[in-house]
Amino acid sequence: MPTVVTPFRSIALALMLAAVGCHAQTSAGPGNAPTGTSANGSGAASLSPELSRRIEVLIRARANVPAEYEVHIGPPHKSDMPGFNTITVDFSAAGRKTAPLDFLLSLDGQTLAQFKKFDLSQDPKNLVSAGDRPARGGATDAPVLIVGFDDLECPFCAQMNAALFPALMKRYPNQVRFVYRDFPLPMHPWAMRAAIDVNCVGAQSTAGYWNLVDYIHVHAGEIGGATSQDKTLAKANEMLDKLTRDEGARQKVKADVLDACILKQDGSAVQQSMKEGEALGVEATPALFINGEKIEGAQPIEYVYRMIDGALVAAGQKPPAATTVQSAPAPKPGN
């Protein structure tokens, strides 16, 4: 049996030794034919883009690899362990690479091992449920699903919301579908109320839901009062309820149903969303899952593009032509 060089817990140490830069990860490019591993164990065939992405998503999730690191997965070569090939993985940022790490990949492409096995049989897209949530963007069968965990009082969420949708709708008009899941943070006093209220509208109108989400993100600084001295939670709740009723009226929803929902303030669905987010490792907002791959915080848009492009290649679709993106340094994730 070959020696497995480094367990997953040591990847973080390896990354600390590499220079950090503003470069996003990339999987195997579209030029690699989706041939998979060699059936006879010779390792002569290259990995398919789809299998390369499954491996990358798993390694990033297990080792908490930061978004700025590129993950490089080498071709398989024969190992001494029956039923497995060896693949070599390294990480790079700012033009520097970590030391390579060896992993074992089963000949059928279903198992990755490094002292223990990990299941690759499930499509990462299925790891994060969209639930029965209002959606925007592409159709239900769009190849890329982005699930965002959002806090309506989070300024970093507002920044991402304002930048993300126009850019992605322009670049991927039919290839990407978006949903938001609720993740109001406890230090934001009216975030729970906002989540419940927008869901009350969303239960009857998808357009109304997104209109209200967009408006609250843009005007969050005004919720509760014009100045910091004037702001109170009571004023914020009153303003949120009024915005919700006004949007409901514009969408011609059933006013009595909407009013009952607002008055009830049932937070059970929001709390369930938060519980599911925590199980997925969400610790800060915003957090996006792009076909199951997590990116946390308001990151530069080119990172998001590269993740989406990788998901499209894995789905057998051609990404849009590359464009040069000028972006300011990303702020730290919301707390």
What does this structure look like?
By secondary structure, this protein is an alpha+beta fold. The chain folds into two domains: 110 residues, no CATH class; 153 residues, 3-Layer(aba) Sandwich (Glutaredoxin), CATH 3.40.30.10. The protein is built from nine helices and twelve strands. Strands 1, 2, 3, 4, 5, 6 and 7 form a seven-stranded antiparallel sheet that branches. It has a five-stranded mixed sheet with strand order 8-10-9-11-12. Helix 4 packs antiparallel against helix 5, helix 5 runs antiparallel to helix 6 and helix 6 packs antiparallel against helix 7. The longest helix is centred in the C-terminal third of the chain and has 18 residues. The radius of gyration is 22 Å and the shape is elongated.
Observed structural traits:
335 residues, alpha+beta, Glutaredoxin, 2 domains, seven-stranded antiparallel beta sheet, five-stranded mixed beta sheet, 9 helices, 12 strands, disordered C terminus
Task: Give me the strand/helix succession.
Answer: HHEEEEEEEEEHEHHHHHEEH
- What name does the CATH topology of the largest domain carry? Glutaredoxin
CATH class value of the largest domain: Alpha Beta
Structural class: alpha+beta
Strand content is 15-25%
- Molecular shape: elongated
Provide the low-confidence segments as ranges: 1-6, 17-44, 326-335
How many domains make up the coordinates?
2
Average predicted confidence as pLDDT: 84
CATH level-4 homologous superfamily of the largest domain: Glutaredoxin
Give me the oligomer status: single chain
Q: Which range best describes the helical content: under 10%, 10-25%, 25-40%, 40-55%, 55-70% or over 70%?
A: 25-40%
Identify the CATH architecture of the largest domain.
3-Layer(aba) Sandwich
Whole-angstrom Rg? 22 Å
Report the strand count.
Answer: 12
Main sheet overview: 7 strands, antiparallel
Number of helices: 9
